[in-house]
Amino acid sequence: MTAYDIIEKKRYGKELTDDEINFFINGYTLNRIPDYQMSALLMAICCNGMSENETFALTNCMLHSGDIVDMSKIDGIVVDKHSTGGVGDTTTLALAPLLACCGVKVAKMSGRGLGFTGGTIDKLESIPDFNTSLSQEKFFEIVNKVGCCVIGQTENLAPADKKLYALRDVTATIDSIPLICGSIMSKKLASGAQAVLLDVKYGEGAFMKTKERAVELAQIMVKIGNRAGKKFAALVTDMSEPLATKVGNSLEIIGAIEVMKGKRNRLSDEMSLVAEKLLVLSGKYDSESARHAVESALTDGRALAKFKEMVEAQGGNTIFVDHPEKFALGETKDVTADKDGYVYSMRTEELGKAVTLLGGGRMVKSDVIDHSVGFEMRVSIGDKVTAGDVLVTVYHRDKNTDLVCDLIKNSIEIRDEMPAPKKTAYAYVTENEVEYY
Ligand code: URA
């Protein structure tokens, strides 16, 4: 077996065997196969796709390239969720304590932001002293005691994905359903939860630009997860505008606290739906009782109290939970509408880039981020505006401020006609069916 033969086979669109996939992925992870041959195979996969069996073998091989977290030391059922990434996706921050209030455990390993998407770990670190790098023993202890804990991903979780993702990023091979599936599912399966809800985003600010491709990705990920013996389901949700109105690190913590105090918006709607679906997937609830449990934990203050308990257990300063006005934010500058009309569309990916340009995100891993910057959306798609109305308030520290204000203005399209209404969730995907909303 040679790398050359395997590349050629995939180039002609033939199905690779498990042994061929293992040979290639293991060889690459152990530096026996060079970048140029891996790049050629990645491009052949991008162009010709992979069957379900090939995708399963790829995921399995990447999963076993590193540690697999053993959650057996946690009492009760451990649930997890994973979003394919978007702008203002603050769901985890309020979801973890909310689920813990409903009697399931959340032992979550999250990532940092890179490029135009933010990362949960960066957001949590805007709370002074919050510790996201705990030992596994301490992590399990907090999950057992509090019900939820969120830490950074351990170094040796699916190392094959780390190498492959960096290569895909520079070879235009990110946008491939089997490769995205292998990347996400290897990490999710290695993270050890028993029931996982995938939130597959579509639209301007997502990897999947259309609903149809998002459903396709969701279906294969759910199949692979269930084939690996875990309970997986997926929601396909809209990312044509930022999910939260407040976008940026400290700003997203403030927005999550507002939701835990009962504020209703797109973020709370989506988070409640994710929570309901996960509670049903856990086997502890039916739809009706899950909806009721989520609603009451959000409105009676238990979710916020649980969040505070988690912050305290992870060493964070809880004054910021009680008094979110204490977060230091940048100076404000408003972006206003040039004309009358309806907010018709947004270039969400550009809006995500705005946070990075202001200093709130990273272009390379070593960049130090400023938690105090970001922006607040004052309008949503479909809103009627008059020239001079504030569209967005930017929080800045004099870094690229004018550039960002121009970028934001150019990213929000105002037209005379009203856009077609959009639902937050488009479909719910389980092993055997797709339910459309
Ligand atoms: N997120 C991942 O972790 N991997 C991908 O390939 C795409 C999104």
Strand order of the largest sheet: 3-2-1-4-5-13-14
CATH architecture of the largest domain: 3-Layer(aba) Sandwich
Total domains, how many?
A: 3
Return the CATH topology of the largest domain. Answer: Pyrimidine Nucleoside Phosphorylase, Chain A, domain 2
Low-confidence stretches: none
How would the global form be characterised?
globular
Percentage of residues in DSSP E strands: 15-25%
Rg (CA only)? 22 Å
CATH top level assignment of the largest domain: Alpha Beta
Quick one: biggest sheet? 7 strands, mixed
Average pLDDT value?
94
N-to-C CA distance: 48 Å
What structural class do you assign from the helix and strand content? Answer: alpha/beta
Descriptive account of the structure:
This protein has helices at 3-11, 18-29, 35-48, 52-63, 91-101, 120-124, 136-146, 159-170, 177-190, 211-227, 249-260, 266-281, 287-299, 302-313, 319-322, 348-360, 401-411, and strands at residues 78-83, 105-110, 148-152, 195-202, 231-238, 246-248, 331-336, 341-346, 374-377, 384-385, 390-396, 412-415, 425-429, 434-436. It is of the alpha/beta class. It folds into 3 domains: 3-63, Up-down Bundle (Transferase, Pyrimidine Nucleoside Phosphorylase, Chain A, domain 3), CATH 1.20.970; 71-321 and 425-436, Pyrimidine Nucleoside Phosphorylase, Chain A, domain 2 (3-Layer(aba) Sandwich), CATH 3.40.1030.10; 329-415, Pyrimidine nucleoside phosphorylase-like, C-terminal domain (Aldehyde Oxidoreductase, domain 3, Alpha-Beta Complex). Strands 3-2-1-4-5-13-14 form a 7-stranded mixed beta sheet, sandwiched between helices. Helix 5 runs parallel beside helix 11. The N and C termini lie far apart (48 Å). The model has no long low-confidence stretch (mean pLDDT 94). Uracil is lined by residues 84-85, 165, 174, 180, 183-184, 207.
